Amino acid sequence: MRSVRHVGGSVVNGIWRLGYASRFFVLTLLKSPVSFRRFHQLTMREVYFTGVLSLIIIVVSGLFVGMVLALQGYETLQKYGSSEAVGTLVALSLVRELGPVVAALLFASRAGSAMTAEIGLMKATEQISAMEMMAVDPIARVIGPRFWGGVISMPLLAAMFSAVGVFGGYLIAVVLIGVDDGAFWSQMQAAVDWRQDVLNGVIKSCVFGVAVTAIALFEGYDAPPTAEGVSGATTRTVVTSSLAILGLDFILTAFMFTGV
Questions:
Q1: Could you tell me if 90 and 66 are in contact, meaning their C-beta atoms sit under 8 angstroms apart?
Q2: Measured between alpha carbons, how far is residue 17 from residues 13, 14, 137 in Å?
Q3: Are 117 and 218 in contact (CB under 8 A)?
Q4: Count of other CB atoms within 10 angstroms of residue 200
Q5: Is the pTM of this model over 0.85?
Q6: Could you read off the pLDDT of 31-87 as tens digits, one per residue?
Q7: 133-184, pLDDT tens digit by residue?
Q8: Chain centroid to CA 142
């Protein structure tokens, strides 16, 4: 009986948190006009915090991912006499899949965890309660700008990741190995389609940005006001965001590229 009661309590608590998170997300969208009316004062600061401060890890990771793709792709394509197509392999892998997914995972681990910790500490130090007592809506003033800052930053970071990754592939394939420069770029341009590849990658990154930012802000706002509560919320943000990114990636890929 105790185990059944425990399972039932976990299910009820999970459903309650899902409903609370949905209500939190809807309230964030409804109170977003404040974020746009004071865009430069509020939202742009969050774009800097979530986007600009994440550039180092995005650029370095994108460069090495592109270099590894070029090395692995060249070894495989050379067996079939298609080594000039390594640029196509690198570009399609990054634009379609690795760019949005890996950038989103890095975004969740760097910016998402930071947003959760920041909101959780504001709650633990009663700054959220102080805002409510002064008739300042914390969702409109604190949550909204951070949400839109993350949503704006994520596609830009994914694009930067893919661009740097292609450059890393160029360094390995053309500069180091000696693949023909013209063949590398011409086959890449011929194979990469704007709507089918680039636009779908942008859509993926936008969806990942919404999911990761919403999860991070909800976990911070719902965190117990203790040091243990904030640390647990930060851990849940990274884990839940990573699972959400991978699950959404499968769903979006099924609709975009297979016609399911």
A1: yes
A2: 6, 5, 21
A3: no
A4: 20
A5: yes
A6: 888 878 888 888 888 899 888 888 999 999 999 999 999 998 888 888 777 777 888
A7: 888 888 888 898 999 999 999 999 999 999 999 999 999 988 888 888 888 8
A8: 20
Long-range contacts of 29-35 (CB under 8 A, 24+ apart): 31/137, 31/139, 31/140, 31/143, 31/144, 32/144, 32/147, 32/148, 34/137, 34/140, 34/141, 34/144, 34/145, 35/140, 35/144, 35/145, 35/147, 35/148
The Cα–Cα gap between 256 and 67 comes to 27
Q: What HEC string does 97-125 produce?
A: HHHHHHHHHHHHHHHHHHHHHHHHHHHHC
For residues 155 and 119, what is the distance between their CA atoms, to the nearest angstrom? 23
CA dihedral (72, 76, 82, 86) in degrees, to 10, reads -10
